[in-house]
């Protein structure tokens, strides 16, 4: 048996394996999984492994020792040391940190509060009817701070109410009422804390980008640029077909207005003549 103060060989092997993991890929990330049920975590790990993003769960002590050793060989990993807290897993892979953030973000889903948790954001209860029948539930809701009343035989919430402010604890009483109202204020899932890609450190705040919003912004900018280019007549591979089409429409409209007969304008000129003749006939009563 190892003597007092010695480290068990299995622990040393685990730290060595983690150190090797930290150095194995260009993208290294620390992932939090607080509150994720064991069965859900196993499912998430399986799906990530199939996508080429396996995660390794270990104790913070083992991760910390391995990271300290890895930093000596790869100094860029140094900022990750501060991220080893709470429940932590390691993910190493090749790819894009922003795509990885979105991939892990999609694992998160609403979950009910049990009481004692800190509200991650303002919890607002909307006004309107509930599914409850009149009874003691009205007093229970009112006691918990919910503006409940009975209207037309139904339990309703009279107005939208800020029931817990962000950063404040959620009481057991409030948590129970929120669950009964099917309001789930918390999220459970994998949380990407930080990534080192190559020599660049990406904190969570930098990775939390609305990609859909960014794409929509690029599309809007593209459309506006095309509109400006058309307005000033700037020719390019994209605008030239549009400029020619617009010039054709304008030339056709001008020729038709001037009565200039061509195989293209003749149908429009005849149609206009018929409309004008019909209008004159209507005015004269003929």
Order of strands in the sheet with most strands? 2-3-1-11-12
Specify Rg, calculated over alpha carbons.
33 Å
CATH 4th-level superfamily of the largest domain: Ribosomal protein L10, N-terminal RNA-binding domain
- Determine the fraction of residues in helical runs and give it as a percent range: 40-55%
How large a portion of the residues is in β-strands, by DSSP E? 15-25%
Our count of domains comes out at 3
Classify the fold: give the CATH topology of the largest domain.
Answer: Alpha-Beta Plaits
- Named CATH architecture of the largest domain: 2-Layer Sandwich
> For the residues shown, what is the average pLDDT?
88
Structural class: alpha+beta
Order of helices and strands: HEHEHEHEEEHEEEHEEEHHHH
How would the global form be characterised? flat
Briefly, what CATH class of the largest domain? Answer: Alpha Beta
The total of helices stands at 10
User: Which consecutive residue ranges, at least 5 long each, have pLDDT under 50?
Assistant: none
The main β sheet shows up as: 5 strands, antiparallel
Distance between the termini: 119 Å
Summarize the entry for a quick read.
With 286 residues, the protein is an alpha+beta fold. It contains 10 helices and 12 strands.
General description of the model:
By secondary structure, the protein is an alpha+beta fold. It has three domains: 9-108 and 189-209, 2-Layer Sandwich (Alpha-Beta Plaits), CATH 3.30.70.1730; 123-178, Molybdopterin biosynthesis moea protein, domain 2 (Alpha-Beta Complex); 214-284, no CATH class. Helices cover 46% and strands 17% of the residues. It contains ten helices and twelve strands. Helix 1 (9-22) crosses helix 3 (60-73). The protein is flat and about 105 Å long.
């Amino acid at each position: 048996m190892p003597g007092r103060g010695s480290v068990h060989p299995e622990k040393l092997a685990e730290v060595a394996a983690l150190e090797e993991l930290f150095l194995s890929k260009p993208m290294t990330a620390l992932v939090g999984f607080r509150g994720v049920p064991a069965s859900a975590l196993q499912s998430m790990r399986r799906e990530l492994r199939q996508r080429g993003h396996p995660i390794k769960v270990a104790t913070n002590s083992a991760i910390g020792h391995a990271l300290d050793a890895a930093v000596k060989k790869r100094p860029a990993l140094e900022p990750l040391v501060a991220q080893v807290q709470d429940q932590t897993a390691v993910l190493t892979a090749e790819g894009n940190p922003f795509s990885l953030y979105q991939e892990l973000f999609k694992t998160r889903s609403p979950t009910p509060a049990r009481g004692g948790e800190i509200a991650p954001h303002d919890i607002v209860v909307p006004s309107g009817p509930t599914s409850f029948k009149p009874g003691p539930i009205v007093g229970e809701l009112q006691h918990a701070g919910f503006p409940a009343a009975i209207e037309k035989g139904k339990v309703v919430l009279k107005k939208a109410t800020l029931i817990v402010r962000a950063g404040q604890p959620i009481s057991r009483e409030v948590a129970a009422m929120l669950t009964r109202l099917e309001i789930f204020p918390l999220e459970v899932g994998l949380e990407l804390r930080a990534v080192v890609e190559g020599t660049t450190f990406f904190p969570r705040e930098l990775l939390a980008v609305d990609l859909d919003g960014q794409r929509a912004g690029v599309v809007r900018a593209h459309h506006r640029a095309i509109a400006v280019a058309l307005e000033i007549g700037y020719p390019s591979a994209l605008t030239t077909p549009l400029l020619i089409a617009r010039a054709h429409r304008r030339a056709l409209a001008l020729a038709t207005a001037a009565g200039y007969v061509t195989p293209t304008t003749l149908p429009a000129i005849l149609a206009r003549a018929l409309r004008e003749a019909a209008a004159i006939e209507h005015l004269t009563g003929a």
